[in-house]
Design brief:
The complex is a heterodimer of chains A (361) and B (277). Chain A has helices at residues 42-50, 92-102, 107-120, 136-148, 166-183, 194-200, 218-223, 228-233, and strands spanning 4-13, 16-26, 31-35, 57-62, 65-66, 77-80, 154-158, 186-191, 203-208, 211-216, 238-246, 252-256, 260-264, 275-280, 286-289, 298-309, 313-320, 325-331, 346-351, 357-360. Chain A is of the alpha+beta class and 361 residues long. In chain A, helix 2 (92-102) packs across helix 3 (107-120) and helix 3 (107-120) packs across helix 4. The two termini of chain A are 35 Å apart. The model of chain A has no long low-confidence stretch (mean pLDDT 92). Chain B contains eleven helices and no strands. Chain B has helices at residues 2-39, 58-65, 67-99, 103-114, 121-132, 141-165, 169-177, 182-211, 214-219, 227-236, 241-273. In chain B, helix 2 (58-65) crosses helix 11 (241-273) and helix 6 crosses helix 8 (182-211). The chains are: A alpha+beta (361), B mainly alpha (277). The interface between A and B is medium-sized, with 29 and 25 residues.
């Protein structure tokens, strides 16, 4: 049985429908992420799970029991707030002890559990300090320890890494995964950062305008996006408007204005003449010399128009003979060579017939 | 170049701070020193001070020799404590309400709190005479406390409101999320974090109340005189300036000690409270 179930949740604010008929099922032990741009309804869903907001329609079930009308302080789940919301007048140990004191555990037990939680987040030596004496990353850890210390059924994390700088963020991501694995508590994470969602989650629900566009594992989401929005929101991608010229499992032919004829594949029965989009990740494209013989079905000639050197990889923008622009990502993994192509080089871009995805309109 | 600029800055600093400094020296520091000096002199035959160099410690001997003065000090202290406590209890819910009102309404409510200052303090005390007289409450300790609370309540509301307004609403949400019911949230989060506001307000209420003479004189009976009345009496009626000066100094010392304690307490509390992320 699912640990947490959202059944046809709807939430309106005046005329605005912030959450529209959302259903979700989250298993025990899962690291589940709600991903979407700001205003997509992800935080509203989190607040409804936490009990700070109630759905206008639908029900939220925890262990099969409805949470309707249960106030936040009675729900066996905790939130790590975006601003951390640490109590400024309490020490680190005082903050972490707070939920245990609310649960009326004996003092000795509280002391033991606080020490345990602080060592889990590597803050054992900071117990006596106050929040304003800590760095952003350390505050984040205290908030995490406070949320985990009395072993809630569910931990909600609201944009919890958003306030950290890039390097610290990456460190915390690694640590968050390790901590979640160590404690085995179910995490529901809210973020607008797709790279963070991909790195952390077992499953991701991509949201837009109050609806779930796709709910899948990170690699599925990335390689098989369900629609244009998901394809575009998660990672970098080339999107071309296309028309189906010939259907067939491995012999799909698509006409793309500005590009030409694309060989692709799709297991679904498609209708000749239907329109959609062809989505292709930049790292699946190879850039070669025009003269180089290559056994790939898709090959288009063009010139390097711009390039973005990023150290480990370079992003090339190639303008094709008939006007289309393709973005290709190449690793710079050849020793002693910085760049493979210069701006203005005549090149060919090519990819396997099964590299891209056809998206129906 | 840099030297010229730093000298100009130095000059500006002096030009700006000199007038208020001069004012304070002339009208605050010097008079205070005169009062200190007067307390060691002898009273003149017809008021004022006896001619120089007559001096003595009589005023202080008298002051500490008669239990009545300590009694009046104790009474003043009790009235000030009681007034401060009543002000805290009355001001807290109001300050909380203002801090949790929509931003637009907040300014109006603050304006209403300070509105009584638009009319003269004595006029407002006379208004209380009109109100308390017919109710047979005039010239009682009760009337004194009412007057004190009425006059000083805004000085408790404003700092408390300023403090409460700066509380991050996420603190309360976090407390609730972690299992704290409403009362616990107040006592464990809101109240301790509002202590700097309470300290500031208490200083603003307690210090004027302990020295005030107009309210007890107008609303209290003959047995309700406080330290302020006593000091006034020495100068205007009993014509014992040295004793009046000695009483003033004792009062000042008491107030300074209490103010130092309050500041110390507020700083210790603020230590944590300013850490809002």
């Amino acid at each position: 049985m699912a640990l947490l179930e959202l059944k046809n949740i709807t939430r309106r604010f005046g005329a605005l429908e912030a959450v529209k008929d959302v259903s979700l099922s989250i298993a025990a032990g899962e690291f589940f992420t709600l991903l979407g741009p700001s205003g997509c309804g992800k935080t509203t869903i989190l607040r409804m799970i936490g009990g700070f907001d109630e759905p206008d329609a639908g029900d939220i079930l925890l262990d099969g029991k409805s949470l309707a009308g249960v106030p936040p302080e009675k729900r066996p789940l905790h939130t790590v707030f975006q601003s951390y919301a640490l109590f400024p007048h309490m020490s680190v140990a005082g903050n972490v002890a707070f939920p245990l004191e609310m649960a009326r555990l004996p003092a000795a037990e509280i002391k033991r559990r606080v020490a345990e939680a602080l060592s889990l987040v590597h803050l054992g030596d900071k117990a006596a300090q106050f929040p304003h004496e800590l760095s952003g990353g350390q505050r984040q850890r205290v908030a995490l320890a406070r949320g985990l210390v009395n072993k809630p059924r569910l931990l909600l994390l609201d944009e919890s890494l958003g306030a950290l700088d890039a390097k610290l963020r990456e460190e915390m991501q690694v640590e968050l995964i390790a901590i979640q694995r160590a404690v085995g508590i179910t995490f529901v994470f809210v973020t607008h950062a797709q790279d963070e969602a991909l790195a952390l989650s077992h499953r991701i629900a991509v949201m837009r305008d109050g609806r779930i566009e796709q709910c899948d594992e990170p690699d599925k989401l990335y390689t098989q996006p369900a629609n244009r929005f998901v394809a575009d929101f998660v990672g970098k991608i080339n999107l071309f408007d296309v028309e189906v010229l010939a259907a067939g499992k491995a012999a799909l032919k698509l006409a793309a204005p500005g590009l030409g004829e694309i060989a692709a594949s799709d297991p679904r029965p498609l209708r000749v003449g239907e329109r959609g989009a062809f989505a292709l990740r930049p790292e699946l494209i190879r850039i070669v010399d025009q003269k180089e013989a290559i056994e790939l079905k898709n090959r288009f000639f063009g010139r390097v128009k711009e390039l973005l050197y990023l150290g480990d990889v370079t992003l090339y923008k190639v303008e094709l003979a008939n006007g289309g622009v393709v973005e290709a990502l190449m690793t710079n993994a050849a020793p002693g060579r910085a760049l493979f192509h210069e701006v203005g080089d005549a090149v060919a871009v090519c990819w396997r017939h099964d590299a891209g995805v056809y998206l129906r309109n | 170049m840099a030297e010229v600029r730093s000298r100009a800055r130095e000059l500006t600093k002096w030009a700006v701070t000199l007038p208020p400094t001069a004012f304070l020296v002339a009208f605050f520091l010097l008079p205070a020193l005169i009062v200190v000096a007067a307390s060691f002199r002898e009273p003149g035959e017809f008021g004022g001070l006896a001619p120089w160099p007559a001096h003595s410690l009589d005023a202080y001997r008298f002051l500490f020799g008669d239990v009545i003065y300590l009694e009046i000090f104790a009474r003043s202290f009790a009235v000030a404590v009681l007034t401060t406590l009543i002000c805290i209890v009355l001001a807290y819910p109001l300050a909380w309400l203002i801090a949790h009102s929509p931003a637009k309404r907040r300014d109006l409510m603050v304006l209403l709190v300070v509105l009584p200052f638009a009319s003269n303090f004595l006029v407002r005390i006379y208004a209380w005479i009109m109100l308390l007289g017919p109710a047979n409450l005039l010239f009682t300790p009760f009337a004194v406390i009412i007057g004190m609370v009425y006059v000083h309540l805004p000085f408790m509301i404003l700092p408390l409101y300023t403090n409460l307004e700066n509380h991050d609403p996420a603190w309360l949400e976090a407390a609730q999320d972690l299992g704290a019911p409403a009362w616990t949230r107040f006592w464990r989060v809101t109240f301790p974090l509002s202590l700097p506001g309470i300290f500031a307000g208490s200083a603003l209420v307690f210090i004027p109340v302990i020295g005030i003479f107009a309210v007890p004189e107008l609303l209290g009976g003959t047995r309700d005189i406080l330290i302020g009345n006593l000091i006034k009496q020495q100068f205007l009626e009993d014509r014992d300036w040295p004793l009046g000066a000695a009483l003033s100094i004792l009062l000042t010392v008491v107030v300074l000690v209490l103010a130092a304690l309050a500041t110390w307490g507020a700083r210790r509390r603020r230590h944590g409270a300013k850490a809002a992320p």
